[in-house]
Amino acid sequence: MTSPIHQTKSNKVQEFKPRYPIPEIHSVLPFNENPLHLVDPMDSQFKDWCFETSLFSRDKFRRIADSTYYAAYFYSFCTDRNRYETLTKSMINIFILDDHMETTWGDINRKEVKAKEIYGQLHEVCDKLSDPGNRSIRMHVWKPYTLGFYAIYEDVLSVYNDCQRKRCLGFMKEWTDGMIDECVDLEANKRIENLTQYMEVRGRSTAVLFFVQLIEYADNLFVPQAEWDHPKFQRLLELATYLVALSNEVYSFEKEVKERDWNMDEVYNMVAFYVRFKGMTVAEAMDSLVTDYLKMEAEIVALKEEVLIEDWLSPDTRVFVERIILEDNPPKRGCLAALSLCVLYADTYYTSKKHNFSIITDCGLYVAYVLYPHIQVIRNSKY
């Protein structure tokens, strides 16, 4: 009998020395874990549900099964069990789609034609969610994980108003197009030499705005469109997107090149682009991105304080902003730290007193936070 997930520790803990050492990032962002995380039988049930739709072997699915940590730390404030389950399924499903895109064993494998075919199904998902009665959409040809995607967001949109549905579907389409554009750029060997150019695609393919928007679902909030469009609110979202992208480029770099047999030409990552097109070393590229990260982190912390005293904020929008990033005092519920510093990293476990972070075996979830002791990960032997 499999032991309950909250009682079973991984037996594959080992010290891992990365090929490319990761620079320190002294972040000031706090975090907190949702108490619903890893509670069985709920945890096992939604992992089983996602596994059945994934088209991955159990070994390959194990790499992403613990992407539940993303939901646990990003939506730490969600108290509704049904919504938390939906959010967690959503997170795993996104990683299923991501692995089908980025890995050599995935259905897409970074091929432009396959990306347009399979991610094109997600455009059909959006069309079907917008018009459930549209019988011209051929759902029977969708991949199982596409059907899973549809089922998840059918639940989300069922509690949204028209404004929220439009916003959610818009970000969903942007993310889909961003993932396709990554494959287009790689096949065309497009030169990408600066962050502004890079974020034209990466700002969409990281899905940050999509995840942030789901705070409304997680906490039963509604941000009016006029407030969402306010320049200061938009700058908060822009900075959040940059922070997630920058930390991802550094922390996920080795995982990404490893998955492509160490070929940087097949990796959509700013570290790789700096090395290829600007002649930097990997260390120089990472240091440059860390410098940019810290500048933007300081700006978002200051801007958050400024926004919270604005008189145009409605009560729900005020809570929404607080959910993105809070001060380092209880309750530590800022979600930006979780999303920007939880990054996928393959088949390793590494702990360091110097960096205070850990990488989790098999699932490859890379949880990093330099100000606090590393998060102890307890996981199900089944995955």
From TrEMBL:
InterPro entries per UniProt: Isoprenoid_synthase_dom_sf, Terpene_cyclase-like_2
Name the Pfam families for this protein. Terpene_syn_C_2
Query: May I ask which residue range the UniProt record assigns to the signal sequence?
Result: none
Q: Which cofactors must be present for this protein to function?
A: Mg(2+)
Q: What is its EC number?
A: 4.2.3.-
Which terms are listed as keywords in the entry? Lyase, Magnesium, Metal-binding
EC class, as a word, reads lyase
Under PANTHER family, the record lists: BETA-PINACENE SYNTHASE-RELATED (PTHR35201:SF4), TERPENE SYNTHASE (PTHR35201)
- Which family is it part of? Belongs to the terpene synthase family.
- From the Swiss-Prot or TrEMBL record, give the protein name: Terpene synthase
